[in-house]
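G., the chain you wanted modeled:
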Amino acid sequence: MTRALLLDTPGPAATGPLRLVDRPSPTPGPGQLLVAVAACGVCRTDLQLVEGDLPRHRSPVVPGHQVVGRVTAAGTGCHHAVGDRVGVTWLGGVCGHCEFCVAGQENLCAAATFHGWDHDGGYTDEMVVADGFAFRIDTDRPDAEVAPLLCAGVIGHRALRATGTRAGQRLGLYGFGSSAALVLQLASAQGLQVHVATRSQVEQARASSMGAGSVGGYDQAPPAPLHGAITFAPVGTVVIDALRAVRRGGTVVINAIHLDEIPAFDYDLLWHERTLRSVANVTRSDIRELLALDAQLRLRVDHRTYPLADANQALADLADGSIGGSGVLIP
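Predicted structure as tokens:
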């Protein structure tokens, strides 16, 4: 038997919508791995799924997609072997032959599937993963430090690249949660000057301690116009704040799977060849790149651990902003 947290009906995290159950251990089929979960990060996407901001793809479902664990069984045709330490991310499968997959844009595959949404995820003791979507983890980092890298770190890396910024230029981070804290370090390592905007004075102080050149509220102008910006807060008004802060020709990247809305705004904010774009999901290349960067930089991963059974509390803490880093479930 194995424990798992199931979502049957979405609801506010504070009401405890996940229920802990015992169920038979899953069995991997051909090309699949059974992974004993050692740590699973708690992501804002999990929160949006649990609270109903994202439509359900299956019900019930086990959330979770920032997983580190060990292979305990492997089906036929697998490259990973029993005993391997692996990571599991949001992307759970793609078709492999559409125009996007062929062009290296598998994150846009219309047939893509995702852990914790289409497949049962990592809020459990054991999970089944397609062999081609598990990643060898060679670092000596503790499991709880690696887990947040597998989504917060990877999607942040993709968003940073999408801004097109380069050494010596100015980057704005709007919101300062788990992903933004990792992007701050990646951007600083690339020689960017980073401005962090957040309403939380605690997070402003944390950003300064981690190397931000300037901090302020969302509606406060940075010291100089930005060459690029990334918005992390799932609030559309913050996108407008970021657009207002970028220079002519600058790019604002929305790092969110869900926003409440983007309110109407004056065209002058977009004129002069400013760009507004999103990032959607990640590719397997993104994951390998981020893991290689972490091997060089040893990114600081602030985290707070919770027992698996306390997943509802971890999500509630994420919702009210009291974690101060990444929440990580430990079975």
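Residues 284-297 form the longest helix (14 residues).

Shout if anything looks off.
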